[in-house]
Amino acid sequence: MELSSLHSLSPLPLCYPKPSSSSTLSFLPFSDRTRAYFGYSVRKRATLRNSCNSAQKNFLHISRAHDHEPRCYFSPNEGLNRYCISKLYNLNKLSRYVVAKSELAGAGTPDASYSLSEVKLSSKVRGVCFYAVTAIAAISLIGFMIVAHPFVLLFDRYRRKAQHFVAKLWAAATVAPFFKIEYEGLENLPSHDAPAVYVSNHQSFLDIYTLLTLGRSFKFISKTAIFLFPIIGWAMSMMGTIPLKRMDSRSQLECLKRCMDLIGNGASVFFFPEGTRSKDGKLGDFKKGAFSVAAKTRVPVVPITLIGTGGIMPAGMEGVVNSGSVKVIIHKPIKETDPEILRQIARNTILDTLKLRG
């Protein structure tokens, strides 16, 4: 559909070439000369690509929500590099955009334009399939954990390797149909019998699945409410996951004591030192709890950088699974006796990796 036909749809502030007496083409609508097509942008940002200029970085934002704005004009020699609306309104507050792709600018064909609703629908379908697969895998494997649990408590009460092996199978079976995981630095992982404190950035609900595929018997820390979920809560209890009540200082103290007790008996623990998932992808401040445990028990801290999980399942959008891949980077263990130094080194290591590779 050409831009000239948009007049019948909505009072959209369109762009026309600036009138000029030197060329009769300058009086024609922009779409008549460029055969532009429109659709919705995946990123909700409207762009109008100018085929008169070969540079593909000239964009113009157009909003349907502000039909009272004056029409903007441009010269074909200048390209669409002037923003008519962005200076008057905050682009983050514009609710809906229209994207016009020029066929001559090398942006593709009309078929390449698609609506945001279609993208969301495909991601939601993948999300439904993801939870269906994880439920089927959990139901199929929970029986093995239940049968093995008495023997685990008798012979391997602290590490619980058998339960973690089943959890690894569950996580691997769940993520395999949806995204690929690449590992880097596996040689930096301590041996299975060597206790350590593992720390990582936290971007998504998928971080747990990704880390379980490493096959290490570290104990996660989880909100007590998660233990109430059938099957998943049972599996977490049998794996030895440590419960925590947020905003409860007594529960936090008990959690740290239990972590030190597990390490003293040869097990490892895992912390997300940011305390919660990052909603904007930026690395937050690290809390000192994990590093105090490592300093007091004199075990190494193993930093791990996760890249890509936040793009596949963003924080706050747990029903959506986008396409993509995940990279797990295991860094060299850090040995220090000062918790503040441990905290700074671990955070800087992960932060530098995110800046370089993220």
UniProtKB/TrEMBL annotation:
Domain (Phospholipid/glycerol acyltransferase) ranges: 196-309
The UniProt record lists the keyword Cell wall biogenesis/degradation: no
EC numbers for this chain: 2.3.1.51
GO cellular component: membrane
Protein name: 1-acyl-sn-glycerol-3-phosphate acyltransferase
Entry note about domains: The HXXXXD motif is essential for acyltransferase activity and may constitute the binding site for the phosphate moiety of the glycerol-3-phosphate.
Sequence intervals crossing the membrane: 130-155, 225-244
Reactions catalysed: a 1-acyl-sn-glycero-3-phosphate + an acyl-CoA = a 1,2-diacyl-sn-glycero-3-phosphate + CoA
Superkingdom of source: Eukaryota
Organism: Gossypium mustelinum (Cotton)
One Pfam family linked to the record: Acyltransferase
SMART domains registered for this protein in UniProt: PlsC
GO biological process: phosphatidic acid biosynthetic process
A single MF term (Gene Ontology): 1-acylglycerol-3-phosphate O-acyltransferase activity
